């Protein structure tokens, strides 16, 4: 049994997700990415303002 036959045999064992599972997973990843980006953006703005405020006190 050569390498390509083994690969083909293992490839046939793979259980692929359904179309709806892929769509739901993709939407979940995109949603979480947007939410984390908003959270980090707000944190960054607040941190910059806090540092500017502290710098003004010095």
UniProtKB/TrEMBL annotation:
A Pfam family it matches: SecE
GO biological process, one term: protein targeting
Listed GO MF terms: protein transmembrane transporter activity
One GO term describing the cellular component: plasma membrane
Bilayer-spanning residue ranges: 26-48
InterPro entries named in the record: SecE_bac, SecE_sf, Translocase_SecE/Sec61-g
Gene3D superfamilies recorded: Preprotein translocase secy subunit (1.20.5.1030)
Location(s) in or outside the cell: Membrane
Key words of the record: Cell membrane, Membrane, Protein transport, Translocation, Transmembrane, Transmembrane helix, Transport
The name this protein goes by in its record: Preprotein translocase subunit SecE
Organism: Fusobacterium nucleatum subsp. nucleatum
């Amino acid at each position: 049994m050569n390498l390509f036959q083994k690969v083909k045999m293992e490839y046939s064992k793979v259980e692929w997700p359904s179309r709806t599972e892929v769509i739901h997973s993709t939407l979940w990843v995109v949603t979480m990415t947007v939410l984390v980006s908003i959270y980090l953006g707000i944190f960054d703005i607040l941190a910059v303002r806090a540092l500017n405020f502290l710098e003004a006190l010095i």
